DNA sequence: AGCGAGACTTGGAAAAATTTTG
DNA sequence: CAAAATTTTTCCAAGTCTCGCT
């Protein structure tokens, strides 16, 4: 550029800064700023500097901006605008406390904040509530109010923006009255509320069920000449949908037209959903036409709502027609939509072709490289196989031809290559994919503490010392006492020590010096002040920041485990044959990176080394992988976080599949019952296995290698794991499952199953498989014949979720929130028990129980005393002084008071006893696993909405983030 | 059909953070 | 306010299931 004679302008630099900063190259950006004057031959001014700070802050580098700002390396004196930018930067990072520090500094140094400064800070404080639904709103509201007060004291009037910010918080906090107060305050001060202001208040009122008040505001708004937006109306419509107020919704819809407010796409979608759920298809039709006319829609959501609505009302014919239309308009129906329809369209699936979903057929046709005419023929032949049920003959006929027609159209539109939004490549997961790679563990830092061998200090190289330390720090885990662990550790360590090394025998090793050193280090860390610790944490966060995020098709997504596992000793579960083996350090040349084509490939963090390979595979979702050094047949992957769209989508798909099973379950159960006596041994075993999986929520049970812990699942059960309890129909089941967790259960089963198991066991020795003709592949192949996509694990998801749904549906009115939460936890516990989710007994459990028992004894003592006094008072004698009393004279001890006290004490005893029982029961039960993996979050969210339980009582921060996709579920949702 | 590679979900323990208690 | 108890987060092991090959 320089050579071409063009002088770079400051504008050029602006773009350069932006690019550099966007790419995370903040140092370079600052360097460039430094160099700017030399190139532009123009003095950089204050504005350039503010721009630099602003850009840094915008991209989340508030800390760098702070350094630049505080460094005073530049000639510019701070001013209000610069401070405002800094405050903005820290607020953006969601660190209002730092922002406030800047604010105070600014005021102290005599710079007058303006309304922008205040709004930025206010927004920062209030933003918290958006990001962290669990925050205490009261505190935030108080803070915001204080800031508003301070503003006024300083003579700065809050403007519309300020009010909008606080109104938003009230909205989130469900504080309709505060919302209304603020609104009138605004009017008093002569600030004209905008559409957004009014909408905020209305939203708050609606979501709190105060529809009348909301309507009043709406009228006021119109009277004041502010035209409501579709969003304003949507607040009402959403509420009407929840309450099934068809008439009100209709009335409002008319009113909207009168006010000449054009509904938005989401208005239409809400209404379509509302009325199709209420089975008012004529109204749906009207709305649908309006929507088309207005040109706002339909989109894929509209179609999905309509199609499901029609489907639920068993109007297959129409629903198929809309599938056609949808595809024709370039929207790909969800697999689940097609599966449902297809299911309605088929009966017994004897023909293999019959089990294909429309999509599968479509793909099949695409794969076969046929001419168009040939494809058509084949498709028609396939459709002809569709079975027509006796009950649904009329609908079915049309359906078959509709589907046939749909497929034709797909082909047609394909060949014309129109604007189809279909996934062109099968299994394509992304188009663009950018990330900054992974973090390798830091190199080993030798400590030089010498261990003893045969009582003498020994020299160790850093490599040898590293492995010795790994063992030393595990001294007080139970691993360190296991012979297998020690044996494997010694074998691997000896290789590193070398043949000539003095250390030969484990029993002569004394690791205590290293252990003590390690304890000491740990203590030192504990001694750190809260401030120090915070600083350390911040530092780490800063380092990790660039690895924490990836961009998938332009969307920012959180990365999960971007840290490569550090070397260590393998800690297998149960009796794992490889426990104690050295888990090597992973070198970059073992790591394969997957990233979008053309994206900057993350640099290898170790100089002179390189990645094993860089791939651009868009059919997978991993960022990196390497071979598991402990088991070379397996891999370790780096994936996105649970909050990512990829994980969210597949989570949702999982639960939709389980819900689909609900429609099939009766048939499937009938199917396996029928085969309990099948003469074909494999079929019989499949049916019994399916029964156990369905009834007891067992896992499938894949085959395992000899070099893994010896655990089983359903298909791999050994004869000794299941015994028949004589003279009953009970089975005693006892085995080690996943993670070597013990499964123990004695259950009554179908007499035919009892008998069949007896037959399977006959003639087999201990160690042989109960289901010898079976493996998970065969089982799943069979299940797939009964329902598209069905596998063994779907039963676990299905049974867990349906159990929660049923248990939560019991009547729980007239209870306070805490009691409702107990109801939820109890249901959760039942599911955890069903899935056999266990945990090891908390260390302090025994002591805790003792304490509770102690309390009960004490309370019983008090009770005795009270009862004695009651007797005495009744007989007219003076009451005795009781231990538990406060020593005041007991003149006014009437029998009534004593009786009340007795009642209270009894309640207390009962409560403590309940606590004890609960604690005992939960001692070894883990509730978390089912919550994260098996319970459809929509059940919980909908339940919370119905019973006005804040969702934060049920889901913690990470679960809320993970289940973001489920939060807007309709309150009437049932699994 | 059977097998091994590959990819993604599920799972408990331990560490860290937060809340309660004394 | 520190210690204890409890909850949340991190870590990584251990499953399930699919796909492509023979």
From TrEMBL:
CDD domains reported in the protein's UniProt record: Topo_IB_C
Matching SMART domains: TOPEUc
Coiled coil: none
Reactions performed catalytically: ATP-independent breakage of single-stranded DNA, followed by passage and rejoining
Active site: 934 (o-(3'-phospho-dna)-tyrosine intermediate)
Gene Ontology CC: chromosome; nucleolus
PPR repeats: 79-113, 159-193, 194-228, 264-298, 299-333
Matches recorded under Gene3D superfamilies: 1.10.132.10, DNA Topoisomerase I, domain 2, Tetratricopeptide repeat domain, Topoisomerase I, Chain A, domain 3, Yeast DNA topoisomerase - domain 1
Localization per Swiss-Prot or TrEMBL: Nucleus
Keywords attached to this entry: DNA-binding, Isomerase, Nucleus, Repeat, Topoisomerase
DNA topoisomerase I eukaryotic-type domain sequence ranges: 569-948
SUPFAM superfamilies recorded: DNA breaking-rejoining enzymes (SSF56349), Eukaryotic DNA topoisomerase I, N-terminal DNA-binding fragment (SSF56741)
Main location as per UniProt: nucleus
GO BP term, pick one: DNA topological change
Example of a GO MF term: DNA binding
One Pfam match: Topoisom_I_N
Record-listed E.C. numbers: 5.6.2.1
Function: Releases the supercoiling and torsional tension of DNA introduced during the DNA replication and transcription by transiently cleaving and rejoining one strand of the DNA duplex. Introduces a single-strand break via transesterification at the specific target site 5'-[CT]CCTTp site in duplex DNA. The scissile phosphodiester is attacked by the catalytic tyrosine of the enzyme, resulting in the formation of a DNA-(3'-phosphotyrosyl)-enzyme intermediate and the expulsion of a 5'-OH DNA strand. The free DNA strand then undergoes passage around the unbroken strand thus removing DNA supercoils.
Record-stated family: Belongs to the type IB topoisomerase family.
Name the record gives this protein: DNA topoisomerase I
Organism for this UniProt entry: Papaver somniferum (Opium poppy)
């Amino acid at each position: 550029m320089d050579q071409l004679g063009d002088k770079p302008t400051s504008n050029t630099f602006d773009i350069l800064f932006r690019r550099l900063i966007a790419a995370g190259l903040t140092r370079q950006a600052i360097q460039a700023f430094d160099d700017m004057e030399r190139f532009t031959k123009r003095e950089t001014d204050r504005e350039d500097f503010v721009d630099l700070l602003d850009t840094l802050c915008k991209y989340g580098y508030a800390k760098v901006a702070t350094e630049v700002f505080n460094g005073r390396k530049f000639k510019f004196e701070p001013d209000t605008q610069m401070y405002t930018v800094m405050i903005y930067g820290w607020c953006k990072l969601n660190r209002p406390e730092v922002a406030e520090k800047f604010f105070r500094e600014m005021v102290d140094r005599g710079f007058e904040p303006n309304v922008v400064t205040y709004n930025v800070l206010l927004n920062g404080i209030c933003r918290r509530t958006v990001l962290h639904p669990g925050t205490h709103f009261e505190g935030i509201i108080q803070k915001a109010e204080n800031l508003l007060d301070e503003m006024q004291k300083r003579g700065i009037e809050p403007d519309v923006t300020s009010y909008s910010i606080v109104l938003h918080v009230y909205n989130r906090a469900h504080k309709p009255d505060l919302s209304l107060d603020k609104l009138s305050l605004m009017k008093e001060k002569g600030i004209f509320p905008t559409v957004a202001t009014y909408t905020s208040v209305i939203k708050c009122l609606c979501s709190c069920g105060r529809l009348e008040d909301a309507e009043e505001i709406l009228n006021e708004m119109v009277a004041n000449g502010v035209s409501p937006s579709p969003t304003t109306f949507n607040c009402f419509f959403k509420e009407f949908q929840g309450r099934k107020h068809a008439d009100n919704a209709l009335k409002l819809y008319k009113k909207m037209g009168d006010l000449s407010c054009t509904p938005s796409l989401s208005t239409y979608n809400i209404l379509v959903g509302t009325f199709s759920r209420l089975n008012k298809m004529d109204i749906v039709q009207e709305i649908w036409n309006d929507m088309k006319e207005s040109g706002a829609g339909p989109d894929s959501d509209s179609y999905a709502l309509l199609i499901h609505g029609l489907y639920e009302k068993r109007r297959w014919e129409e629903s198929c027609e809309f599938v056609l239309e949808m595809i024709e308009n370039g929207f790909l129906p969800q697999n689940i939509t097609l599966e449902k329809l297809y299911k309605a369209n088929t009966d017994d699936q004897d023909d293999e072709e019959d089990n294909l979903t429309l999509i599968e057929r479509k793909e099949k046709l695409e794969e076969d490289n046929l001419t168009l005419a040939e494809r058509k023929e084949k498709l028609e032949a396939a459709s002809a196989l569709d079975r027509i049920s006796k009950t649904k003959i009329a609908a079915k006929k049309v359906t078959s031809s509709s589907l046939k027609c749909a497929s034709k159209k797909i082909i047609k539109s394909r060949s014309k290559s129109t604007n189809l939004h279909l996934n062109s490549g099968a299994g394509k997961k992304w188009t663009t994919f950018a990330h900054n790679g992974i973090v390798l563990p830091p190199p080993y830092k030798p400590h030089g503490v010498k261990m003893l061998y045969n009582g003498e200090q020994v020299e160790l190289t850093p490599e040898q010392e590293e492995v010795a330390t790994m063992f030393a720090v595990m001294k007080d885990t139970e691993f360190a006492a296991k012979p297998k662990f020690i044996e494997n550790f010694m074998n691997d360590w000896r290789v590193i020590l070398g043949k000539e090394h003095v250390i030969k025998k484990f029993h002569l090793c004394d690791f205590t010096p290293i252990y003590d050193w390690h304890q000491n280090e740990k203590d030192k860390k504990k001694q750190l002040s809260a401030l120090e610790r915070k600083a350390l944490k911040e530092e780490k966060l800063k380092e990790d920041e660039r690895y924490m995020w990836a961009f998938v098709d332009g969307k920012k997504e959180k990365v999960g485990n971007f840290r490569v596992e550090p070397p260590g000793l393998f800690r297998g579960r149960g009796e794992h044959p490889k426990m104690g083996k050295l888990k090597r350090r992973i070198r970059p040349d073992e790591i394969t990176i997957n990233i979008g084509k053309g994206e900057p490939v993350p640099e290898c963090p170790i100089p002179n080394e390189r990645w094993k390979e860089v791939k651009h595979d868009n059919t997978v979702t991993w960022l990196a992988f390497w071979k598991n050094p402990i088991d070379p047949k397996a891999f370790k992957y780096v994936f996105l976080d649970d909050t990512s769209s990829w994980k969210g989508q597949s989570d949702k798909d999982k639960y939709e599949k389980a819900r689909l099973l609900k429609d099939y379950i009766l048939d499937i159960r009938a199917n396996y019952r029928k085969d309990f006596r099948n003469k074909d041994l494999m079929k019989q075993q499949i049916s019994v296995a399916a029964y156990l999986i369905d009834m007891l929520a067992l896992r499938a049970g894949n085959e395992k290698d000899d070099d893994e812990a010896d655990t089983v699942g359903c298909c791999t059960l050994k004869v000794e794991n299941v015994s028949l309890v004589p003279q009953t129909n009970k089975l005693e089941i006892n085995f080690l499952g996943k993670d070597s967790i013990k499964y123990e259960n004695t259950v009554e089963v179908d007499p035919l199953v009892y008998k069949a198991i007896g037959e399977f066991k006959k003639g087999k020795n201990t160690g042989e498989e109960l289901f010898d003709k079976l493996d998970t592949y065969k089982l799943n192949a069979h299940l797939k014949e009964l329902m598209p996509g069905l596998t063994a694990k779907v039963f676990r998801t299905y049974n867990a979720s349906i159990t929660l749904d049923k248990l939560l549906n019991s009547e729980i009115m007239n209870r306070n929130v805490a009691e409702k939460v107990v109801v939820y936890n109890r249901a959760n516990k039942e599911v955890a028990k069903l899935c056999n989710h266990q945990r090891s007994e908390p260390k302090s459990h025994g002591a805790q129980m003792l304490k509770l028992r102690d309390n009960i004894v004490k309370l019983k003592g008090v009770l005795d005393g009270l009862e004695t006094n009651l007797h005495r008072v009744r007989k007219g004698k003076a009451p005795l002084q009781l231990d538990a009393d406060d020593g005041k004279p007991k003149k006014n001890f009437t029998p009534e008071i004593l009786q009340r006290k007795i009642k209270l004490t009894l309640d207390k005893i009962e409560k403590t006893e309940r606590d004890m029982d609960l604690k005992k029961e939960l001692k070894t039960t883990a509730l978390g696993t089912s919550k994260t993996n098996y319970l459809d979050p929509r059940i919980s969210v909908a339940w919370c909405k119905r019973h006005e339980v804040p969702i934060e009582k049920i889901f913690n921060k990470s679960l809320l983030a993970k289940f973001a996709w489920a939060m807007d579920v309709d309150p009437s949702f049932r699994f």
